[in-house]
Design a protein that fits this description.
Mean pLDDT: 76
Structural class: alpha/beta
CATH class of the largest domain: Alpha Beta
Number of domains: 5
Largest sheet: 5 strands, parallel
Number of strands: 10
Strand content: 5-15%
Oligomer: single chain
CATH architecture of the largest domain: 3-Layer(aba) Sandwich
Helix content: 40-55%
Radius of gyration: 37 Å
CATH superfamily of the largest domain: P-loop containing nucleotide triphosphate hydrolases
Number of helices: 29
Length: about 625
């Protein structure tokens, strides 16, 4: 007898044999039992989940001689009608590949032939497989007969691309979506087939096959058939991992460990091993993505048995995932997912895979910019070691802290105001008491103070009785927009006027004045004030403080003055020329003051201190506009 592949041999012949589609089975059996038969059904889903099979079973149930419409037992698969439909020889059940009927003339001929009643069965059933392959004109030719069919006619459409089916067709059909079959359920189905076919396969091997099937029953059964042929009736887990094209759990565990440790040489060696074994880079990358996703689920608190891995591998992966940390795994998955397109489309897939893995190995070396600006130790961003440092403008930093021991009298006294040319350095906060196992404190990065305000302490902490209201206001602003709270905390003076229930904000420079002005126009500041202080609270933005004049001119000032003097000499003694020269000098001086404001901005100075940089050139928007003219 000719050998029949397992996918065809084990094709379901009744509703009870459909795997993983309980919702669809319930709906169809109830429709038959109650006689609520629609004129058209549309089955959608990925390949190999039972769409065409369900259409055949439904056709048999409609025409079964033993059960039929009004009963729940069909189909019987014993009567002549059921057997003919199974063999594909029933004249009243037409199974058509839509790709061969894509022309409108063919569809019109089909529609004309369907007006006649069935030759023997109760219903004439038309199964159109891959219906999305029909042309637009062919769909239009079907509209009338689908909407008003003869009483004996039922359409069953199947498609893997539901988006390609016109809305006019969808509105005339009852749609049923066939879902992907879960790995555990699919592995159980494979176990039943293996036992019936006397195939010796371990649970781990069947789990790998089910995972490689990606939710498709037909693909998984076909893989089992292939591996059983290769192993002579035996399917070993190691051979299954090797033949499935890169599902090597030991390699994935070593790779994830190397990426988590930032070990680029080890990661590169593993990529070369993939190339030497001849594995498909796209398949390897997809399987490693699934492995990292399992790691993410485990670190989120999932049980070891919640992932489709053997118990020992799941325990090992859970331990490794908890060591890497949730944020690093999330960042890694985002990086790998972004590289999937380049690996899939590249002609040099192995090279693209190696580059993607090496880039992923650099992720643990990244440091959050908030850590650097806050004076952190510069450890890996998102790592599992220790809590993250809170930004000075975050709500946690602005919240009232627990009472502490009184500071020394010298610490309570206000520091002396330095000169405009002497940079001020913010003092380091007092170090917490070192407990057992505590890490050594790291000194924060010094941040020079602005020219207008050299007090290193945040202004809100120096507030008098109104400090609580202002602190609550800044906390609420920080919750909405953190960088705006930083401007309030360091670059503006705040005054709570209780009699008016108004917060007066005076910016210290034009840069912060513009940002606060836009926030005030959008209503963000007023909303924060109402939330923090109650109904009736408002915010008033006052004009920015004029820039303080420096005691000694800088080189830029001398250059600007020289230019003005030169312009005055060329203008001669004319009164109009003198006025223009004076106006030009004042404009240049104002622009130079704005440049100095930006250059000495605390955020700019903080970034320069962290990265060891310097400002070599600085232009204002007005300068750019004049140069464009």
């Amino acid at each position: 007898m000719t050998y029949q592949v397992l996918a065809r041999k084990w094709r379901p012949q009744d509703f009870a044999s459909l795997v993983g589609q309980q919702a669809v089975v319930t709906a169809l059996t109830n429709a038959i039992a109650e006689g609520r038969i629609a004129q058209a059904y549309l089955f959608s889903g990925i390949r190999g989940v039972g769409k065409t099979t369900a259409a055949r079973v439904f056709a048999k149930a409609l025409n079964c001689e033993k059960f039929g419409v009004g009963s729940r037992g069909g189909p019987c698969n014993e009567c002549r009608t059921c057997q003919d439909i199974t063999a594909g020889s029933d004249l009243d059940v037409l199974e058509i590949d839509a790709a061969t009927y894509s022309k409108v003339e063919q569809v019109r001929e089909l529609a004309e032939s369907l007006k006649y009643g069935p030759a023997r069965d109760r219903y004439k059933v038309v199964v159109l497989d891959e219906v999305h392959r029909l042309s637009r004109q062919a769909f239009d030719a079907l509209l009338k007969i689908i909407e008003e069919p003869p009483p004996h006619l039922v359409f069953l459409f199947a498609t893997t691309e539901i988006d390609a089916v016109p809305a006019t067709i969808l509105s005339r059909c009852q749609e049923f979506h066939f879902r992907r079959v879960g790995t555990e359920e699919l592995a159980g189905h494979l176990r039943a087939i293996a036992d019936a076919e006397s195939i010796r396969a371990s649970d781990g091997a069947l789990a790998l096959i089910a995972r490689a099937g990606e939710g498709s029953v037909r693909d998984a059964v076909a893989i089992l058939d292939q591996l059983a042929t290769f192993g002579g009736g035996t399917v070993e887990e190691g051979e299954a991992a090797r033949l499935l094209g890169g599902i090597d759990l030991a390699l994935f565990h070593e790779l994830l460990s190397g990426i988590g440790a930032g070990d680029a040489p080890a990661v590169s060696a593993l990529a070369r091993r993939v190339e030497e074994n001849g594995w498909d880079p796209r398949q390897v990358h997809a399987n490693f993505l699934a492995y990292c996703r399992d790691a993410l689920h485990l670190v989120l608190g999932g049980a070891d048995g919640s992932v489709a891995l053997p118990a020992d591998e799941s325990a090992r992966l859970g331990e490794l995932a908890r060591g890497i940390g949730y944020e690093n795994l999330l960042r890694l998955l985002h990086q790998l997912l972004g590289s999937e397109t380049s690996i899939r489309r590249s002609d040099a897939g192995a090279l693209a895979l190696e580059i993607a893995w090496l880039r992923a190995a650099e992720l643990p070396k990244l440091v959050a910019i908030e850590e650097l600006l806050a004076g952190g130790s510069g450890g890996p961003a998102g790592g599992p070691s220790g809590p993250r440092r809170v930004s000075p403008t975050s709500p946690a930093a602005l919240a009232p802290s627990a009472p502490s021991a009184p500071a020394a009298p010298a610490a309570r006294s206000a520091p002396a105001k330095p000169s405009a040319t002497t940079p001020s350095v913010a003092p380091a906060p007092p170090a917490p008491p070192a407990g057992p196992g505590a890490a050594a404190p790291v000194a924060p990065v010094p941040v020079p103070a602005s020219r207008e305000e050299s007090d290193p302490a945040p202004r809100l902490r120096a507030m008098p009785a109104s400090g609580q209201e202002l602190t609550a206001f800044v906390q609420e602003v920080s919750r909405r927009k953190a960088n705006l709270a930083g401007l309030l905390d360091g670059l503006a003076s705040l005054d709570w006027r209780a009699d008016e229930r108004t917060i007066a904000i005076t910016p210290h420079d034009t840069l912060s004045s513009g940002s606060l002005g836009r926030a005030a126009k959008s209503g963000l500041l007023d909303e924060a004030a109402v939330t923090a202080l109650g109904a009736g609270a408002t915010v008033r933005l006052l004009p920015a403080k004029p820039p303080a004049r420096r005691d000694s001119p800088t080189d830029a000032d001398r250059s600007a003055g020289a230019n003005v003097a030169e312009g005055s000499r060329r203008a001669g003694s004319s009164g109009v020329s003198d006025a223009r020269a004076e106006e030009s000098a004042e404009s240049d001086e104002a622009r130079q003051a704005q440049r100095d404001d930006v250059r000495e901005h605390p955020i700019v100075q903080s970034v320069l201190s962290v990265f060891g940089g310097e400002v070599r050139d600085l232009s204002l928007f007005e300068d750019d506009e004049e140069s464009n003219r």
